[in-house]
Amino acid sequence: MDDPAKPILVVGATGRHGGTGRIVADTLLDAGQPIRILTRSIDDRVAALRARGAIVFQADLHDRLSLLPALESVDTAYFTYPIASGVIDAAANFAGAARETGLKRLVTMSMGPAHPKSPSHLGRAQWLAEQMFEWAGFDCLHVRIAAAFLENIEMLHGREIREEGVIRNAFPDVKVSWILGEDAARVAAAALLTPERLPAGPAVYPGSPHQYTQSEIAGIIGGVLGKPVRFEAIPVDRWRARIIELATGDDRLNADMAAHISAVAGALHVMPALPPNNMIEEITGKAPQGLLEALETGRFVLDRPQLTAT
Q: Is the pTM of this model over 0.90?
């Protein structure tokens, strides 16, 4: 680990979907590690972290000059960006500011589809953003999560599950790995605190031993709710339009996310899903929760907002 007296900068500590930045920040604070957090706006989520000892910097990833004070005298940082457009510009600004201030090591929360030939435009953009971090000369570790977030089920299907007892999407009914955002965050926190426990980078692909088909997900949720829940496959274009429609009432969603999710769904009809693995338990010493356990323990709920990790 780097000098523990120096603060680690956490980008995305007030993010909502998956909440990895907040969990990383809390985990570092629990370990006695000084942190700085970078946020665009000040709200109750920021106040809670400040009360725990985090130093708060208000800045914008799309404004390089605003990033300089937060990065001053920082050797290590955690970077994450929403599933939305703009990651390349944000990465360029961050890399430029971080080179100027002498950043040495960077842990990035990434996605399995981050690849130069990804079917998703956001997957290709994420890959290019990570390339820029490497070109900037940082010691990089890109945590490319090889699983879907369980939180997606609530965000994309919570209403139709409650009202119609159905999960509609364009994914094939094949087994895919699933994890909670908090389990992904624990890997990133370990990469910051105990980097020697992770495989050599620049990219690692933590997945999950928990794999489910869409029908199996429907069955598990139906069992917990005590009512029938079924899976209904729909075309990719209809699925994309449905997510865009949902975005009008849920600011966690956006048109770029709709394009990303529907593109990944379409690709899984012609290519295999990433295989399961036990990397999260091997790195953190704690196995990720499966869907049933997450529902029974309240780590995952089907009503917005998601429960906050403790």
A: yes
